[in-house]
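pinning this so it doesn't scroll away 📌
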Amino acid sequence: MMMKAVVVDRDYGSTTAEDMDRISQAYRAAGIRLELQHLTTEDEIIAGCQGAMAILCTGNPPISRRVMEALPELRYIQRFGIGVNSIDLDAASELGKIVLNLPGFCVQELADLATALIMGLIRNVGFYDRAIRAGGWPKGGYLLPRNVREMTLGLYGFGGAARCLYGIFHRGFGTKVIACDPYVSDKDRADHEVEFVSFDELLLRSDILSLHAPLTETTRHIFGRDAFRRMKDSAMIVNTARGPLIDQEALIWALETGEIRYAGLDTMEQEPLPPDCPLLGMDNVLLTPHSGFYGESSKHIQIQMVCDLIPGAVTASRLPARCVADRAVLARDLGLELI
């Protein structure tokens, strides 16, 4: 009898039917039947995943302690991305569930999108495009662009995507780069021409502030009214990480009152944005639909990793330790060779 795995959010929008067919074939070769469902609540996931040894999450469905306790045969939870904020990692470790993510699969694409947002805002690209399409020709108008080579780029978090962005701006443009990340090793600090600063100094000095941190209880809404008050009134904030790092109401307030000048957002606290959201009418805001992961190379890596991880654990009892998000579970006897 084949084992059962369930994609619980097939309609999230980050994968295609062809992607799912390829994954289904890889799972079938490993003796796993993959079911495609779209379950949005804890109750729906519990009801739809009985008997499943694996849950696959293309987005961020609620995988809570309650869900995991109600699914005793569940062994693996596979995310199609890097973030795992919708999964209770402590409960997963305690219950012996292995949470898998895809570290690093799209860091270059995230940095490229952040660059596009930054330069698009500085050069008024969105404003000019909309004005021309509306019949205008605002030559030399709107906000006077600054020279990015004379600005300071601040990075909140210094992981893979932030390091790619550092390379683009520091090595490419010659931009001064500062960063706030207390978890960076001394070796990594020595290997990069980055000045590491406190959070308060990051706010005060950054002309461009790009977010690259995970969403935790500590980082949720860390960019609120108080943070925006401390930023330069000419500053830009760019978010390609997690939407709730920014208090969306506070951001709207900061843009409307001139506490900051620009915002570039790939991730938002509300997705999709409601049709009456003031951000939609602001010329000094660029918006993309949570698509920083999207790229030819990253898509190939993403789907290949999903095809390999759980099937490899089932058929060869091997699993890359770097892809285990609930690190505490590694202390248990998993019956797997961690590579």
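📌 and the second one:
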Amino acid sequence: MNPESSTHDRQVSRNDNNQQIDQRIFDLYDEYCHGEMDRREFLRRASLVTVAGVSALSMAQALLPRYAEAAVVSFNDDRIKARYVKYPSPGGNSGEMRGYLVQPAGEGPFPAVLVVHENRGLNPYIEDVARRCALQGFLALAPDGLYPAGGYPGNDDEGRTLQRGLDQAKLKQDMLNSAQYLKALDQSTGALGATGFCWGGGVVNFLAVNMGQDIRAVVPYYGASVSGDDVASIRAAVMVQSAEKDPRINALWPDFEAALKANNVDYQRFLYPDTQHGFHNNSTPRYNEAAAELSWQRTLEFFQEHLAD
């Protein structure tokens, strides 16, 4: 069996499961992902929900990530070169950072894209996104914000707890330092973009504010927006990727859009129908194949447009 076909089949299966999960369970999972309850409480509360007279516990269990099934690009794909790197991070949580650096096979230099993880550290899904970027000709760095706390622990529950325990201002500084490190690498053309998911989407907006002309393009996926006053500092082109069923993030959009317009920021936003927060992550049934593929195509085209010399 062709490995790529096998991966596609598994993703379609998980996407089909999406249609069978009650929205109340998706809503509970969203609370769980954002640290408002632990796994035990998530499963307990899900077990109290009934669908056609049957407990929804199995739906909740199906939402937990399965990273081994979700890899799109193998870590040893000969079209890319991947390695872990360490670099200074002054003002961050420990003064040093570690990240997953992936480049296309070849000499370079390449335009650069920072890939920022969710609120649980550098998990396998985010590493895979970095590899996907490299396959399209970008030098990609996925920093692990949990490195000062020992690194991503191998599961999202512990990762979420560790990330919540870090100094959040210093954590953002670690991400800013990571972007500056990537931009300055010899393998980089110096043309920098950034994309991130959930917490990482909010960080991408933070980078747009704090890097000014040093970052050309940003693509936040369902990330928290910045304050209206901060938008005046944005010089990058902005593409916002939004899920329809994501009330906490979508409630921020009208004020964010008003500030983008008032400050003449080059922006566009796509709202994907019938999608959940996290629709790009193909390791859980929140994944929506059609929206994930379309949004990713748009993201890549956006970077290709704005990061070309």
